[in-house]
From TrEMBL:
Belongs to the sulfatase family. The gene is STS. GO terms for cellular component: endoplasmic reticulum. This is Steroid sulfatase. It comes from Equus asinus (Donkey). The chain crosses the membrane at residues 179-198, 210-232.
């Protein structure tokens, strides 16, 4: 009898331990709009697996990215902190890393949820896009690499997917080339023409050497542009497995299938121990790509094809969890790093950006369309199925939620801006723990969101807004993304105030006439902003010009033959496995 009682106690303890220490599968899309998944209202884009997640769990309808850009948003997601606290918020136009040989990145002093879980005995993996830096001082120090931030295994892109990575898809550097190349070439042409006319008129005898030097300078500028565009792909678009380059340049051939298969394999080999898998999709960021099984099959062109292929991948992960009977002990989270990129329209007029539903704006700005993203969490038996929550939540909340469930204490030497989601998800609390949320446009505090206690109102005050171009558009089409300072924005004195609970489309700013408490509300929000800014400490700017420029000594290459950098270990591995 005693043995039986002890055995029952042991089994109960084991069950309790399993419940308190779940596995974690965190699925992060890239540039997916809140209006894209079927469970958020899309009637024509097929996302049955994302919808299945929502049906079996909780759907957050006011889930917010901490930044409307990839790099800072992902830094906030990983650390539970506003990106300005880690120096991952740019003070210039360029708000993300573009080169693999940049020296900036997520500082080693930052603590990710992967570090916390690894210390708790979890197996940890990141598969897909990283975009938080690689090296600091030389090409083998890997100071910003996923393996230096708590992940046992990494397979994916150290930087990001760009149009320049796929031949024939154009370049993201069009504006830069126009400014840095077209203008100098035009000046040289004007100088040549002027000197030629003056020489013909006999007003200014000009030596032939001057003409030669100007033509040579033009040729050098053109040559540099051609070299940049030619070498950008192999030098920046490559796959790594841990610290080794496995495919340079990367091939899009069955890329989603390869990464999904690797994610499934990680789950299989980690099934006996608690694990953390971050599957960070390249979809649906441009360049768009999909395999032959999905190409041309959707009702939304190339964008729809990629979205539906990503949904297939989500389904594969769910199937593996079911197959291994891990679903009931696995917390799954699905989201996007920011809203859809509405300015992604090709020169042929094809829309390569997604839908932000009813919401204004998109990627790179803090209108709701740029920061309100899908947020789905499922944990059968622990989180109620089919629940919809309209309270303000943040992608920073995943950090404390995951840490607490894994049994890890939160770091006490720093401010954690995220809040544990479990009380809200389990119905123990009816309100978000965020009374205030702060929306940054890179380094600059752009807006404040206030959900007062004992009130249904959700106030949002903008200190400045981007100037959409052309006038009347829903984005900054002339610059491809919106910028955060200078002539690209309009300052508001007093701040532009909305009640998001009544005006989610942000169409009708409030005034003293329409809102009697107008001044009182703005004063409370300004005081909150002042209290928040006092908590910020000066840290090195990881996205400064010196940190984002290409540094030859940091350039990784899988071959020693100059800058050709050609290898395909992935293809060899596939050949061996088949």
């Amino acid at each position: 009898m005693r043995i039986l009682v002890l055995l029952l106690l042991f089994l109960c303890e084991t069950q309790s331990c399993a419940t308190s220490r779940p596995n974690f599968v965190l699925l992060m899309a890239d540039d997916l709009g809140i209006g894209d998944p079927g469970c958020y209202g899309n009637k024509t884009l097929r996302t049955p697996n994302i919808d299945r997640l929502a049906e079996g769990g909780v759907k957050l309808t006011q889930h917010l990215a901490a930044s409307p850009l990839c790099t800072p948003s992902r830094a906030a997601f990983m650390t539970g902190r506003y990106p300005i606290r880690s120096g991952m918020a740019s003070q210039s136009k360029v708000g993300v890393f573009l080169f693999s040989a940049s020296s900036g990145g997520l500082p080693t002093s930052e603590i990710t949820f992967a570090k916390l879980l690894k210390n708790q005995g979890y197996s940890t993996a990141l598969i897909g896009k990283w975009h938080l830096g690689t090296n600091c001082h030389n090409k083998t120090d890997f100071c910003h690499h996923p393996l230096s931030h708590g992940f046992d295994y990494f397979h994916g892109l150290p930087v990001t997917n760009l149009r320049d990575c796929k031949p024939g898809e154009g370049t993201v550097f069009t504006t830069g080339i126009r400014v840095l190349v077209s203008v100098p070439l035009q000046l040289i042409a004007i100088a040549l023409l002027t000197l030629a006319v003056l020489k013909c008129l006999g007003l200014l005898p000009t030596p032939g050497l001057v003409f030669f030097c100007l033509l040579f300078l033009a040729a050098v500028i053109l040559g540099l542009v051609v070299c940049f565009l030619y070498y950008f792909r192999p030098l920046n678009c490559f796959l790594m497995r841990n610290h080794e380059i496995t495919q340079q340049p990367l091939s899009y051939d069955h890329l989603t299938q390869r990464l999904t298969e690797d994610a499934a394999e990680f789950i299989r080999r980690s099934a006996e121990t608690p694990f953390l898998l971050v599957l960070s999709y390249l979809h649906v960021h441009t360049a768009l790509f999909s395999s032959k099984d999905f190409a041309g099959k959707s009702k939304h062109g190339a964008y729809g094809d990629t979205a539906e292929e990503m949904d297939w991948s989500v389904g594969q992960i769910l199937n593996v969890l079911d197959e291994l009977r891990l679903a009931n002990n696995t917390l799954i989270y699905f989201s996007s790093d920011q809203g859809a990129h509405v300015e992604e329209v090709t020169t042929r007029g094809e829309v390569h950006g997604g839908s932000n539903g009813i919401y204004k704006g998109g990627k790179a700005n803090n209108w709701e369309g740029g920061i309100r993203v899908p947020g789905i969490l499922r944990w059968p038996g622990v989180i109620p199925a089919g629940l919809e929550i309209d309270e303000p939540t943040s992608n920073m909340d995943i950090f404390p939620t995951v840490a607490k469930l894994a049994g890890s204490p939160l770091p006490e030497d720093r401010i954690i801006d995220g809040r544990d989601l479990m009380p809200l998800l389990q119905g123990k609390s009816q309100r978000s723990d965020h009374e205030f949320l702060f929306h940054y446009c890179n380094f600059y505090l752009n807006a404040v969101r206030w959900h007062p206690r004992n009130s249904t109102s959700i106030w949002k005050a903008f200190f400045f807004t981007p100037k959409f171009t052309p006038e009347g558009a829903n984005g900054c089409f002339s610059t491809h993304v919106c910028f955060c300072h200078g002539d690209y924005i309009t300052h508001h004195h007093p701040p532009l105030l909305f009640d998001i609970s009544k005006d989610p489309r942000e169409r009708n700013p409030l005034t003293l006439t329409t809102e009697p408490r107008f001044q009182e509300i703005l004063e409370a929000m300004q005081q909150a902003a002042d209290r928040h800014t006092k908590t910020l400490q000066e840290v090195p700017n990881q996205l400064s010009l010196g940190n984002i420029v290409w540094k030859p000594w940091l350039q990784m290459c899988c071959s020693s033959s100059g800058l050709s950098c050609q290898c395909d270990q992935e293809k060899q591995d596939r050949t061996v496995s088949h």
